[in-house]
Specification:
alpha/beta, 13 strands, 6-stranded parallel β-sheet, TIM Barrel, 3-stranded parallel β-sheet, single chain, 332 residues
């Protein structure tokens, strides 16, 4: 996110990151100290440009879900849909005029399959895309100039060839020049080693790089190495049975907490289907703050389950909690 830094405030001697004081939201800069429970990888509006892409196109339903999130203590969501493949800053602006939940908009690029042929950053190339990303961070979104992007979305698979590397460099350079963070869609954490080399070459501090979906690769040693290098790890498979969260992300999260590395983790849900929203009967955005641990084993008494949930709530980080915001991702 685009932020201003306190020059004398250091988040940790091991990485030397500076504290965040402001977060750029759709409605303008917001004090980081105002942010409590946040979804660090969310989607409120997706108007797909190609067939078979996720779609979220009901503003009334999105507003209801935001109200439900607010009632559960939610204060901020990072909408990770970039321009050209479904974002609409005008809709996001209207939502924030009514909702108490702050929304952060994204510039940047997604996977090529989400763009019509011959359109978007994949057609523009690296140099022109870097200019566009930086313009949206500094001046405003292409479709809504009154709204500035607060974060750069980027997609990394490791096998996208020169075009993918050029766009990733463009995203990293735009973030570096505009003091922004980059939220990277990884392909289940694959090829992050190659991404790390690009970040090193860019000069952007790892504290401004969130590796989303990295929990789909539940390699605790890799996660510890990345966190200790300063990267932010975006965990978002808590509600996805296909990734077996009880066996993977929850043990991984507990291990990172035990190692004192939880400040390098952000929590998100990446819900791209309205059926997953609470107002439609799903777990919804509220789950990022309320679902503090896996279900208690069957057969345990109500009192035991309650005590377990209380212990879990006290142990787990909440994305965006505290004056520094999610550790590292919004600082540096």
């Amino acid at each position: 996110m685009r932020v201003s830094f306190e020059q004398d405030s250091v988040a940790g001697a091991d990485v030397g990151h500076k504290a965040v004081t402001w977060i750029e939201t759709v409605a303008g800069p917001r004090p980081a100290a105002d942010v409590g429970v946040a979804d660090a990888h969310a989607h409120l509006w997706i108007a797909p440009r190609v067939p078979d892409a996720p779609a979220l196109t009901d503003p009334a339903l999105a507003l209801a879900e935001l109200a439900d999130f607010a009632a559960a203590g939610g204060t901020l969501v990072v909408d990770c849909q970039p321009g050209g493949c479904g974002r609409d800053g005008r809709v996001l602006a209207r939502l924030t005029q009514v909702s108490t939940v702050a929304v952060v908009a994204a510039t940047g690029f997604h996977l090529a399959r989400y763009y019509p042929a011959g359109e978007g950053p994949w057609a523009l190339g690296g140099d022109a895309s870097r200019i566009q990303f930086e313009r949206e961070l500094r001046q405003g979104l292409a479709e809504e100039p009154t709204v500035r992007a607060g974060v750069v979305k980027a997609a990394w698979t490791g096998d996208g060839g020169d075009a993918e590397r050029d766009l990733m460099r463009a995203a990293l350079e735009a973030a570096q020049r505009a003091a922004a963070a980059v939220v990277v869609h990884t392909d289940a954490g694959a090829a992050v080693e190659g991404l790390v080399r690009l970040v090193d070459d860019s000069g952007l501090t790892p504290a401004r790089v969130q590796l989303s979906h990295i929990d789909k690769r539940p390699d605790a040693a890799l996660h510890r190495d990345l966190a200790r290098a300063g990267y932010v790890l975006g965990y978002d498979t808590f509600l996805r049975p296909k990734y077996d969260p009880e066996r993977h992300v929850w043990p991984l999260l507990r291990a990172m907490i035990a190692d004192g590395l939880w400040p390098h983790i952000t929590l998100g849900l990446d819900l791209v289907d309205a059926a997953s929203w609470h107002v439609r009967g799903g777990a919804g955005l509220r789950a990022v703050g309320r679902r503090a641990g896996p279900p208690a084993p069957r057969g345990r008494g109500r009192r035991d389950r309650t005590r377990s949930r209380r212990r879990q709530r006290g142990a787990l980080p909440r994305a965006g909690q505290g004056s520094r915001g999610p550790r590292g991702c919004w600082g540096g």
